[in-house]
Amino acid sequence: MVVIVGLGNPGRSYSNTRHNVGFLVVDALSEKLKCGFRPGKGEFVSATSSYRDNEIALAKPVTSMNESGIAVAEIVEYYKVELGQLLIVLDDFQIPMGVLRMRHSGSDGGHNGMYSIIYHLQSDLFPRLRCGIGTEDMPQDKSLMADFVLSKFSAKDRPVVEEMVGRASDACLSFVTDGIEKTMTLFNRKGEENSSG
Fold first, then answer.
1. What is the pLDDT of residue 197?
2. In-domain check, residue 136
């Protein structure tokens, strides 16, 4: 089984904000796979399906973003999944809007949800798909970044976001069927492959 976890903040006030791209991706996957989310045995909701003879679980924490690790540790325990078969989908303001970057492992990159996951799993050796939300007009002052990531996408950004969410959901399914190496080759933008993070 592959478990795909999208990161975000629960609640209507956070829907369609930049920080909730992970939720948007797993929601798109649930539509493609025609499976609905139900409360899990812990701080998460989940849905199960299959794709080309592969079992898949989709999950979303119901904690705040900063405590995502509590839910992810529960998800890993519930599904008994190896960390190499756990894919975390998240936003990244350090990557340009629309760019995808999948990695085997790595640091939290300044993302509080990822920091919490690494802390609670006591490992950073799990795949992650970062979805770029960086724009030219985002604040240069890092102290203002929280307001930026919690704001909603502008009208001009929405078509780019929708296209990125579609590609990200395709990348998740590619990860399930073809593995991470092929998926990285297909979906990481040219020039991004050798970047660290």
1. 40
2. yes
SS (H, E, C) the chain: CEEEEECCCCCHHHCCEHHHHHHHHHHHHHHHCCCCCEECCCCEEEEEEEECCEEEEEEEECCCHHHHHHHHHHHHHHHCCCHHHEEEEEEEEEEECCCEEEECCCCCCCCHHHHHHHHHHCCCCCCEEEEEEECCCCCCCHHHHHHHHCCECCCCCHHHHHHHHHHHHHHHHHHHHHCHHHHHHHHCCCCCCCCCC
Mean pLDDT by 10 residues, the chain (197 residues): 97 88 97 96 97 97 97 98 98 92 94 96 98 83 76 88 96 97 89 40
Residue 120 annotated to the active site: no
In this structure, is residue 195 part of a structural domain?
no
Give the total number of structural domains in the chain. Answer: 1
pLDDT the model gives residue 196: 38
Here the CATH number for the domain that contains residue 38 is 3.40.50.1470
Query: Is position 193 within any domain?
Result: no
Q: Which of 19, 104, 111, 120 is catalytic?
A: 19
